[in-house]
Specification:
Distance between the termini: 34 Å
Largest sheet: 7 strands, mixed
Shape: globular
Number of helices: 16
Helix content: 25-40%
Number of strands: 20
Structural class: alpha/beta
Strand content: 15-25%
């Protein structure tokens, strides 16, 4: 490798790392990104995991957060020159129910209202009120989620809210932000199916129906999808990684794959570089680690600050996820209606109670008897991902225990994922078959990715936790990953942390990387 040095040495090549690297490279910093895998991207990658011509997204599929992020708005033209292209889904997400009915949300607000009104006119009126209020409400909520998490920023947000909403409206907003999905959904809607449709989004981010602080995510997904649609990457989610890699390298940055970092070097309270592949790489201005908190302890040997080190050690991860990648001869024929073939996501999560039970089982170490299934149908939006006339299916099985203690259904006896992955995947596929008969006969090839496989591929996905840490209130906002360090700083001068474990958390919006880039560049 030879002696290397850069202004910023960045560990890991996830989206947050690349966003930060690009931001710094634009401002004249020399950057080196070190990735332990043989290709960049972390959980955002696309590959032919089932066979030639079938492009599958390894983990993340929905790029709406990236497309709507400040980083992308600032860099859209440059990234387009490196091949980034989105395709939009106007039929965004739907849920299917045991009585062969369905409910879905897309960009056609009139059609959304009509489907809701068919179940409850009262709910349709509530939906109208939410739709009308969304532009004003989103200013406050998105402003909070995009803010730097320090007391000054919070005070500014609170002051803006008080000026625009008054004391009563501001307290109502605070109550909403603290509410669980179930509380908000049951207070707002009377239809159990509409509650389930929206509540399923909480399960994407470790917010089961009864978890405090989870109400905003079903709300934001519902309103944002209706207002803007859903964005997928043309040819696969990996397009954003390829484009950022091109932009970084065009500015002199380097991304070195198959280069695991063994140690972060620091002396007298200051980070000086890393050891990777037995070689020292010097960091002139910053070491940036996109790693799960426990890895910070392993790489540094401890920061010397007990409170920070304890927080890294006790950082809590969310339940895991299993991925199933399918190559199909045709899209599923959903029993509830042929219209479902046009939706980017179809959730199999029929009730809030079912979701709550599934979450409780997974957190107890049990394989859920009826897991939540997210069926992504990317080729209905982007046919380029499969040979002509054929399709890919992106299946997330939520939730799954990182370590198996038993089976809630009492049928799977294996307690290692090497042995349990196949029968648990069969349980998930049986649920899809129930709601879309004949799907099994359309499977040309499949790839099962257990939670342990996700972690082996990317150590940040501890136990298959795709959001790199629970977002519950005790570990969010000012407390992500620890009080006093939500801005990516650490007790070691010149050492910073980024990634989904740092505020504002998981998602392809890459807020942590963007905010850290601003901080280091002096903005």
């Amino acid at each position: 490798m030879g002696q290397l040095s850069a202004d910023a040495v960045i560990i890991g090549s996830g989206v947050n790392s690349l966003v930060c690297a690009h931001h710094l490279a634009k401002r004249g910093w020399s950057v080196i990104v070190l990735e332990q895998a043989d290709e960049p991207g972390g959980a955002v990658r696309t590959g032919e995991y089932t066979g030639a011509g079938f492009a599958h997204d390894w983990a993340a599929m929905n790029l709406s957060m990236f497309a709507g992020s400040p980083y992308f708005q600032e860099n859209a033209a440059e990234l387009a020159t490196h091949g980034l292209e989105f395709v939009g889904a106007s039929n965004c997400f739907a849920s299917v129910f045991p009585d062969d009915t369905w409910l879905g949300i897309g960009t056609d607000a009139v059609a959304n209202r009509a489907r809701i009104a068919a179940m409850s006119e009262t709910d349709a009126q509530a939906w109208d009120a939410l739709t009308a209020a969304f532009p004003a409400e989103s200013e406050h909520i998105l402003g909070l989620l995009g803010a730097r998490m320090n007391l000054r920023a919070i005070a500014s947000i609170a002051w803006k809210s008080l000026r625009k909403k008054g004391a009563g409206g501001s307290l109502d907003l605070a109550r909403f932000l603290a509410s669980s999905p179930r509380v908000w959904l049951e207070e707002t809607f009377e239809s159990p199916k509409l509650r389930a449709l929206l509540g399923s989004w909480g399960m994407h981010l470790d917010f089961a129906p009864d978890i405090t602080g989870g109400a905003m995510f079903p709300y934001l997904e519902a309103m944002a999808n209706q207002a803007f649609g859903m964005a997928l990457g043309k040819g696969g989610a990996g397009t954003i990684v390829t484009a950022m890699q091109g932009a970084i390298e065009a500015r002199g940055g380097r991304i070195l794959c198959s280069t695991p970092v063994e140690r972060i070097l620091h002396a007298d309270g200051k980070a000086t570089g890393v050891i990777a592949g037995g070689e020292t790489i010097t960091a002139n201005r910053a070491v940036i680690a996109n790693v799960a908190p426990r890895a910070m302890l392993e790489l540094t040997g401890g920061s010397g600050t007990d409170r920070y080190d304890t927080a890294m050690k006790k950082f809590r991860h969310a339940p895991g996820t299993m991925m199933i990648h399918l190559a199909l001869s045709d899209l599923p024929d959903w029993a509830a209606g042929a219209e479902l073939r046009d939706y980017a996501y179809v959730h199999i999560a029929p009730s809030l109670d079912q979701m709550a039970r599934t979450y409780a089982q997974a957190t107890a170490g049990l394989l859920p008897d009826e897991p939540v299934i997210v069926v992504g149908q990317p080729t209905t939006v982007d046919p380029s991902r499969a040979p002509e006339g054929q399709h890919t299916l992106w299946v997330q099985v939520r939730m799954a225990p990182g370590e198996i203690r038993g089976d809630a259904a009492g049928k799977i006896t294996a307690t290692s994922w090497d042995e349990a992955a196949q029968p648990f995947a069969e349980r998930a596929l049986a649920l899809i078959e129930h709601y879309a008969p004949g799907t099994r006969s359309k499977i040309l090839a499949q790839r099962i990715v257990a939670p342990t496989d996700l972690e082996a591929d990317n150590p940040n996905l501890v136990g298959g936790d795709q959001v790199c840490g629970s977002h519950h209130l005790s570990q969010h906002f000012l407390f992500r990953p620890a009080r006093g360090y939500a801005d990516g700083s650490t007790p070691i001068t010149g050492l910073y942390q980024t990634g989904a474990a740092v505020w504002p958390g998981a998602g392809t919006g890459a807020g942590a990387g963007y905010q850290l880039g601003l901080k280091l560049a002096g903005k």
